[in-house]
């Protein structure tokens, strides 16, 4: 398998001038294409910070994050934005949909930023809404959707840019069991059929049970790291 992410000796300290908090402490992590990995640990263990460092939403105080051979810690702000736009899809706990836009427009926006042609955008949007089972909700605004539906729209938005991998921060935290299972089914299917790489930050046992690799963080350091299961291994997919 090909290494997609190589986080080497990364460290992140918050409030260094007042009351220093070491959120991530000299972490080494290698992730390969097609992994379905969960970052777990108690609150304050550093899992969300690690996810943000991997995704370039935050910058480490030490170390490097290399994605497909590019050290994103050395990119300028503008080049980092462009790199994220074309390589990384984000799914947030709070959905982060734009309330004044329809579901369709929320998904289209990232492709417009990529300057994808309108005809191709229409094809992708139709396909994505079919995959998430919300073809009848394309022109509905987020406030008119359930939490589970909004999170599925957020997944479609993350996929719209055709990223190398998806980073999902507590994606099931606000969902009921049925909605969470449906969302995980969609992600697992994409992982299996399209070899898409997923990295989760989560407390949710439902996500942990689906993961084929579980990295446990304690006090900003990797405490345990289960061996990745083959990306071709079978696991439940019902979507």
UniProtKB/TrEMBL annotation:
Coiled coil: none
GO molecular function annotations of the record: ATP binding; ATP hydrolysis activity; transmembrane transporter activity
Keywords for the protein's UniProt record, in alphabetical order: ATP-binding, Nucleotide-binding, Transport
Keyword Cytoplasm part of the UniProt annotation: no
Superkingdom of the source species: Bacteria
Domain ABC transporter: 5-239
One Pfam family of this chain: ABC_tran
Stored InterPro entries: AAA+_ATPase, ABC_transporter-like_ATP-bd, ABC_transporter-like_CS, ABC_transpr_LolD-like, MacB-like_ATP-bd, P-loop_NTPase
Membership in a protein family: Belongs to the ABC transporter superfamily. Macrolide exporter (TC 3.A.1.122) family.
Protein name: ABC transporter ATP-binding protein
The organism of origin for this protein: Fulvivirga imtechensis AK7
């Amino acid at each position: 398998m090909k290494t997609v992410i190589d986080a080497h000796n990364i460290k992140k300290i918050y409030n260094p001038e007042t009351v220093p908090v070491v959120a991530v402490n000299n972490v080494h992590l290698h992730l390969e294409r097609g992994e379905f990995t969960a970052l777990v640990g108690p609150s304050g263990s550093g899992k969300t910070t690690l996810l943000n460092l991997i995704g370039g939403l935050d910058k480490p105080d030490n170390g490097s994050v290399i994605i497909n051979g590019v050290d994103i810690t050395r990119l300028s702000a503008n080049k980092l934005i462009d790199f994220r736009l074309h390589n990384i899809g984000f799914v947030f706990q709070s959905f982060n949909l734009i309330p004044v836009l329809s579901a369709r427009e929320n998904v289209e926006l990232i492709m417009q930023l990529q300057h994808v042609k309108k005809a191709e955008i229409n094809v992708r949007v139709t396909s994505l809404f079919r995959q998430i089972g919300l073809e009848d909700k394309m022109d509905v605004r987020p406030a008119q959707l359930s939490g589970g539906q909004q999170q599925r729209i957020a997944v479609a938005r993350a996929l719209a840019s055709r990223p190398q991998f998806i980073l999902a921060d507590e994606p099931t935290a606000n969902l009921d069991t049925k909605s969470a299972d449906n969302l995980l089914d969609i992600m697992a299917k994409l992982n299996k059929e399209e070899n898409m790489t997923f990295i989760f930050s989560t407390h949710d046992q439902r996500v942990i049970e689906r993961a084929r690799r579980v990295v446990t963080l304690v006090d900003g350091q990797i405490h345990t790291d289960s061996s990745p299961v083959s990306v071709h291994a079978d696991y439940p997919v019902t979507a």
